[in-house]
Amino acid sequence: MTTKYGRVVLFALFFLLPCSAFSQSRFTGPWDLDSLKRVPQAEWRATEPAEPGIALKEVYYEGEPYLGRPTRVFAYCAHPKEVDGPLPAMVLVHGGGGTAFPEWVTRWAKRGYAALAMDTAGHGPGRKRLADGGPNQSHTEKFAHIADHSLEDMWTYHAVAAVIRGHSLLASLEEVDADRIGITGISWGGYLTCIVTGLDDRLKVSVPVYGCGYLHENSCWLGDFARLTPKQRQTWVDSFDPSRYLPGVTCPILFVNGTNDFAYPLDSYQKSYRAVPGRTDLCVTVGMPHGHRPGWAPSEIGLFVDSVLQSGVPLPRAGNAEIRGSSITASIQSNSPLAKARLHYTVDSGPWKPRRWTTVDAAIRDATIHAELPKDRPLVCFLTVTDDRGATVSTEHHVLSSE
User: Is pTM beyond 0.85 here?
Assistant: First the structure.
């Protein structure tokens, strides 16, 4: 794999100046973005591809210093062997317990993309600890270390830097179109994707899966926050919660989650996508399981990315749901035929994970979804619409109190 040289300076300045002006108004936290946007030093190693027609390589690239010593980040990179012009590309960010997955980059390569998936836990192939790896991804490195470590030695600091440097490396490859690169991440990788998308103005599309912000308000890590002092907690939130970075998102973004996710509940999720100043798209699924394979499986992810990076047919788009009396309606825009619409609701209260959801058919009339609400209160409800490709999009959820 080779890097690009000799790009036309005037062309670069034309596109970079507006982005640079905007990025000055973004909150950038503890990261040096100018440094992270430079192409990192890297060592490439060939490996056996998992699929015919796919070129797969291992790469080690420079990371941020950890505890005063230099580090390297391990990643897999894949693309189709037969390349006809520069390819769109994706940065893939794993979640807790994950690693750089060769099958994940292979999935995107089979779709016609170049893809890079890095390990954010200081591991190499087979999850073997690197002698010069960065911090592990346990709760200690994510939370407790803020008591006696600098921000630059925290896991989030290193993981975000590894993702942005991975983007810089991917963009430098001859077979990659640097102006058509997106990102998707799962669970803690979705959390990182929210932060990185608000920091890295070069990204053209983003799909965080499960992960969101406002973790200090409601998430499965409230116990970790409770063990911090108020000052430590506030420092963590100010530096590492995605709520500080989502207002900087400027590219199209699709949020994917389940109604009963154990880690990222719908209230924090809603506050997160509402923090994005521009358009957001939603794909919320009743009972979506939490995991890496369930997290990269939804067809909506690839279709959404294709619509931005490859001029593919976009997902349907649901407008804001409106409730009048006992009815809920939402407008629908779609370039593909619509197959069905549904109303999803729960009359349970309390923690989100154990709530039971009911799904009933809704009607589609004149590019509008219509459904009748049950009389029970309190009630949480939202609408979905599915096109003839099986792609489903959601409205925001509404909370109707019993008062």
Answer: yes
